[in-house]
């Protein structure tokens, strides 16, 4: 029996449940074993066969050479057929219900964790 590849998925210490569930489902569907990685729940990176940097809170702009501009909210209009709009609405509501927004918008511990994991992935050519 072939072993399932272990795919690390980064996320926040609090909240992020909707994003985690959707990513978990997607990875399970393709035969992977998803593992949630956050600052309070680290994982041995040497056991990973892949890495997903989860979305969510903003990355502190100083990490990419910019100044903090405050919180920016981006609204995207739904395109496509009715079913796509219905799914988008469901996911939007699901995300609002299960989200936990911090007042600052940045998570420095998560930024540091993800920066370290990205450097490791680049060095070891981890997908």
When the domains are counted, the total is 1
Oligomeric category = single chain
- Silhouette: globular
Would you list the SSEs in sequence order as H and E?
Answer: EHEEHH
Widest sheet, order of strands = 2-1-3
The helix content, as a percent range, equals 25-40%
- Termini separation comes to 23 Å
- The gyration radius over C-alpha positions equals 16 Å
By DSSP, the count of extended strands is 3
Mean pLDDT across all residues, rounded? Answer: 79
As residue ranges, the low-confidence spans are 71-79
- Count of runs of 4 or more consecutive helical residues: 3
Report the biggest beta sheet as strand number plus sense, adding barrel if it closes.
3 strands, parallel
Give the amount of beta strand, in percent: 5-15%
Structural class label: alpha/beta
Please provide a written account of the structure:
The protein has 127 residues and is of the alpha/beta class. The chain has one domain (6-59, 78-124). 37% of the residues lie in helices and 10% in strands. It has three helices and three strands. The protein has helices at residues 17-29, 82-98, 108-124, and strands at residues 6-10, 33-37, 50-52. A three-stranded parallel sheet has the order 2-1-3, sandwiched between helices. It is globular.
């Amino acid at each position: 029996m072939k072993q399932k590849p272990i795919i690390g998925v980064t996320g926040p210490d609090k909240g992020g449940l909707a994003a985690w569930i959707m990513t978990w489902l997607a990875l399970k569907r393709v035969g992977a074993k998803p593992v949630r990685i956050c600052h309070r729940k680290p994982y041995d990176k040497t056991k990973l066969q892949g890495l997903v940097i989860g979305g969510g809170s903003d990355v502190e702009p100083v990490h990419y050479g910019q100044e903090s501009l405050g919180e920016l909210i981006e609204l995207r209009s739904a395109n496509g057929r009715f079913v796509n709009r219905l799914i988008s609405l469901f996911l939007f509501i699901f995300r609002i219900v299960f989200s936990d927004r911090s007042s600052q918008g940045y998570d420095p511990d998560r930024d540091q964790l993800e920066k370290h994991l990205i450097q490791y992935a680049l060095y070891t050519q981890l997908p």
